Structure formats: C-alpha cells, structure tokens
Amino acid sequence: MQKIQISDIVKICLFPFLVYIISHSLNLLYNPEDVWWWPNILFHFSGGFSMAVSGYFILDLAKNYNKIKTANIFIDFILILNFVMAMAVVWEFYELISDTYFFTHSQLSNADTMNDLIMGGVGALFFCLFWLLRRIVAKLAKWATFLYWHKRYPMLDYLGRGVWRTLLMYG
Description:
mainly alpha; elongated
C-alpha cells in the first residue's frame, strides 16, 4: 500500500493557505471593504479557485492510488465543484462562528453570505474551464505534432495504422 507523501499534502494545502493569508492580511492591514465593494467578491472568488485546485490535486491523488475511477472529465468537474461548494459552506460556518463568539463582522447579511457562496462556485467554474482549455490545447498539440511528422514522412501512414486508430479513438 502506497503512503501519501508530504509533497502531496503541500500541493493540496499550499494554494488555499496562501490565498487565505493574503486576503486575511489585507483585511487586517487596510480593511478594504470599508472603502470599496469588490474586495470581498475577489477574496471569495480566489478562495473558490484555490479550493478547486486543491480538489483537483485530491482527485488526482485518489486516481493515482487507485481509490477512485471516474468515467469522464465531466464527472471530475462535478466532483471538484461539489468539493468547492462543501468547503464554501464550511467557510461560511466559520464566519458565522467567528461573528457569534468573537464579535467579528464577517457576515453582513444573508445576501452577503449567498454572494460569498456564489463567488466560490464561480471561482471553481473558472478553474474547470481553464482545466478543460488546457486539456484541449494539449490534445491539439498532440494532433498537430503527429500530423506534421506524418506529412513529412508519408511512410508513417503504412507503418502507423494503429497510431491513427488510437488517435481517432482516444485523441
């Protein structure tokens, strides 16, 4: 049985931790929400994006250790989005507890809480779109490379019939 490496844990936790430290530091130093309306939106969007990155690493780790198998990329999207939304709800509970017991003013209203949840989800959707675009570009690069070499060396058509079939099925 394989053990989880420290580098895997660092990969999972680093980006959300950095986003939290940066947003919390800016709130403590400047309190930008008193001056502008948009920093709270940006903080929750970047938090959703960073949690989606962590969700991707967790999913990738589970696949590498043969703990989960998914049918296609859209199931991966749904799993990552569900992970981010669950973490957003946990974060809003954290803000509620912080407001109740430590008299902070993290949650201004129900609309603010819903906006925070929505922005976390939008951040996760942006990550999923970037991930999809990266996969499409990588597949197009494989096709372009193969077609370049095939045009340059036509004998590949005779030698590489299985390659064509493989590219058409999986490429």
